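Any chance you'd type out a single protein's sequence alongside its tokenized fold?
>
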Amino acid sequence: MKKIALSTLSLALMGAAGAAHAQSSVTLYGIIDTSFTYVNHVNGNNSLYSISNTNAGDLSGSRWGLKGTEDLGGGLSAIFQLENGFDPGNGKLQQGSRMFGRQAFVGLQSNQYGTVTLGRQYDPSVDLVQAITEDNYFGSAFATPGDVDNYDNSFRVSNAIKYLSPVYAGFQVEGMYAFGGVPGSTGQGMTWALGAAYNNGPIALAASYVNTRNTNPTGTALKRSSWTSTSDGPFDTFNSANPTVNFGYQTANAIKIVRVAGQYTLGQFTLGASFSNALYTADGFSTFASTQKYNTAQGFVNYQLTPAMLLGLGYNYTHASGDTNASYNQVSAGADYSLSKRTDVYLVGAWQHASGNQGDASGGSVPAVASVGSYGYGGTSTQLLLSVGLRHKF
């Protein structure tokens, strides 16, 4: 990240409003991650060749942002962050075409008491758990099929208040509540979440719980047709006519996700494992009748071959039950080479096999289709994805 001197960007942004202070700073930062990607078995047996993609980043989602802090004295600071997501292949906005769809918040940070922020933010599963999973190293190709448990940060949470504690003896906790904004019905569209993490030397542990709710249909509609909530929802698909994994459960009453993860570093090796349980619950406004359950187990091993070269291998098993029954086995591998502190090149790949049946948008079931990670491409029971890319951080 590059810090812009106060006399330039900071004064330009804050000086006109009379808000510039010697203890204030604004940082401009960003990532451009673009790749050449090959995917087979898309919309049937078709092959796809593309530069970047519209549903997921590779190692990182491309972005640019501004974040700032003002020292208020006594260990208290005012903070803000605005973060935009974009597709480097065509320049379009991501996250529903929002200007600052990745993050947009303001808050107060205390060295003694922790941080309170208000706005559009990451939930505790992203802040605390994702950091010790393989997604932190190699991104979307290692993510849960369909990202049913938000492993790859498919959704952010709007209208949220979040508290993050200081670190005490390696422990840190976080809580979030997002207001649904439906008059007379507080629970509709709301999201709440909790998380905790422990880091001590080579050992890192984390756990989280996220509960996010849909809104009810209005007017004469008898059923929901989509997901409308303070969270965006983990429904990644390339083509709604050929939905993947959990796309048939957008009309869920609520999504409840439990995640736990652990990581251990031993010399040049990093070993990690995680487990998640995601429930997509049904009510009278859902197009499906029974709660859909996704249990996912994941493991990975990384090897720092040289100071510049990181190698990774991961395995993911997701099993669905309840409304429909499907299983997804995925093997992923990656290599990342740093050309400098800010620029790296990489090669990642994954192969997945799907079996059983998955839900469709009408409440029925169809044969399960493979869909690697959170890319949202699907077509047959197997799929191979390969990406070679370049990432630059500024």
The chain has one domain: 34-393. The domain at 34-393 is CATH 2.40.160.10 (Porin). The longest strand covers residues 24-42. The chain has a mean pLDDT of 90.
